[in-house]
What does this fold into?
Amino acid sequence: MAGSSLLFSLMGVLVKACSATVPAGEMVFWRSAVGALFIAAWVGLRGGTLATRVPAMHFWRSACGVGALGLWFHSIAGLPLATAMTLNYMSSVWMALFLIGGAVLFGAARIDPRLVAAVLAGFVGVALVLRPNTDAQSWSHGLAGLISGVLAAMAYLQVTALGRSGEPEYRIVFYFSLGGLALGAVSMVVEGTGTHTPLIVAQLVAIGVLATGAQVMLTRAFAIGHVMANAALQYLGILWSFLFGALLFAEPVTAWALLGVALIIGAGMAATLLRTRVLPAALQDARASVPSEL
It folds into this structure.
């Protein structure tokens, strides 16, 4: 999980570096192309199959995941790297909000006040993280980052459902990559493509390589690791992003932003703990949040 967090942060660095000349949709295309080719080759060598009995489930999972990915890349282009990363990691708090909403909808007699407090702390953290960015353009990118976290949480619910249906991880990732290829291709037709110097092409390929490597590490971590350890280590991605943003893009690190990040991390950890240990067994499959890349 620590390695996955580092690779995702490095991917974010390259996304930000390319964003001045390459649209977000094209970056999604390149990221997805590398992932699809890797998974197809891996399955071929292992003798597996990509045929599925639940194409509709894959469609909705891909729609949520690819939407989250595109919005995340868009937010990285217009926000400090650590801010965009933090907003995407709000998916754990959104998951908790979904569970509260489900409890209300189904008439639960009691809603755990600690879960409500975690959600509220997460939103206070968002307000503090976005506080230094008061212009309209920054807020529009901030909104994109928030929505990416919502869609990432929805995608994880779909991943959980696909796992229950017997779909292996590689097949879920493959169809997610196909969705990214489709959306990226449409975006490139509508918006056009960016400037392609040899350096930019190398960076675009590297985005796909880093994302795929991070995805493999992430899948392995959730397969063999402890839920709370994974939940804690994934937030290293935010710390890496602060470091890279300050060193490579001269992005300021403010006390308000650090306080907001601390609230979001604390809220995410608390929400994960409550979901896995307090809520009924039927809900315990909603584990630690994962980036939209899963």
Summary: The CA atoms of residues 91 and 150 lie 6 Å apart. The mean pLDDT is 82. DSSP finds twelve helices and no strands in the chain. The chain has one domain: 2-283.
